[in-house]
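Q: How do we represent a protein-ligand complex in a form that can be generated token by token?
A: Start from the inputs.
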Amino acid sequence: MKPLGLPARLTLLNLAIFALLLAVTFIASYVIFKSQLESDLNNDLSDRVEALRAYLKFENNIPGLKYDTDDPEAARFVQNATRYFQISNMTTGEIVTQSPEMELLGLTFVPAELQVIDQQTGPTDFQTSSGDVRFLDARITSPSGEPYLVQVGASLDPLQVALKRFNELGLVLIPAVLVLAAIAGRFLAGKSMAPMRRLAHAAHEIEPSNLTGRLPLAGSGDEIDQLAAAFNEVLGRVEKVVGELRQLSGSIAHELRTPLAALRGGAEIALLHAGSVDEVKEVLSSQLEEFDKLARTIDQLLTLARAESGGIQFRLVPFDLGIMVSDVLETFSLLATAREISLEYTSGKILLATVDPQWMENVLINLLDNAIKYTPPGGHVSIQGTLEMDAVRIDICDTGVGIPPEAIPYIFDRFYRADPSRNKEVAGAGLGLSFVKWIVEKHGGTVHVSSEINRGSTFTIRLPRAETAG
Ligand code: ADP
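Then emit the structure tokens for the protein with adenosine-5'-diphosphate bound:
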């Protein structure tokens, strides 16, 4: 069975709450109405008993109603008040006075019953052939000391009829109101869901191949608008990441194709033209460099993937970058000599920064490698370390080919290489500087470049200073 939609569920919930509230209101009204009717009836009975007492006179020690029959008001009152009326001798049980309607009811009591009735504080209800009748009683004593019980009654019929009407009204009104509430609730729930349906429709229209679409905003700033805005924001981020990934996969394919084509070409030549084992060996050894380059690019890509997925944790410690620079310079000294480039380091100070030494060494290696790579023989590479207020600053300057101004904004992008034709034999994968930027920024630092074509470049990194102990 298909589950109920949100509007139907909301309508049902609303209806259940409404029905419960209606039932509680109805029961409370019934109880209040009933108690009001009863209290009115009891007050009326007690007023009548009190008023009738004034008309009770004893004649020969027998009580009876005596009033001026010429007084129309007294006559009307007594007639109305004594519809159900009787006076009984409490000792003998004998009825001494009785209204005609009371006589028809045939309510007679033995002395013991009269005692019990007398002892009750409130009124007493009796079921009779003419329906339920409520009696209020009062005891009077004759001059000779004989006790008599005066009983004045009123039919409960009007009260019961009023309550029955009230119930009937409830039975008709409550279902009618519930039906109206269900219709109104369903209409409102459907109406409030309409913007959601529009959003869902618009969201369906957005294809993974084209993430430029956005959900429409009504501009009201309500919850639906907030939801759409949040969705659009997420979509924007997804679009950016997907765009980057597409660009990256395109670049990766491009990067791998060239060395693979070169390797394939080498293998083909070896197969078709190499006559001796030595010739094959020669081809294979020339291919080793390409394999190395491929392996390096793949290594970098793997690190990049780990970095992207947040799988890399930095272990930050206070470390003297001066020592690190000296060590890195030493590893590059042979290469620099071979390329006739002089290396120089000036600082002399302790450059204590909060870094992950392994990753930071990678930064220096990349920057120094570039400086040597892009500096022609006879050039000069110098590193300078300085302490600033909050940062340790390292400048790596070379007197190399420089970077064209239009390329500067892109050199930190992945796979970007400024005019590789400038230096074909040293072309890398274009990933080095993107790593440098990523690592430095992960340390809370910055990296900048200033360069002049054919005069050289200076890369400046700033890293947070470590607190010196003591
Ligand atoms: P690559 O592997 O090509 O060196 P990088 O990301 O390290 O990749 O550098 C990106 C580009 O920036 C390089 O291709 C080069 O054109 C330019 N570049 C980087 N460092 C220097 C430098 N010291 N002198 C001149 N150009 C540089």
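The mean pLDDT is 88. The longest helix spans residues 223-273.
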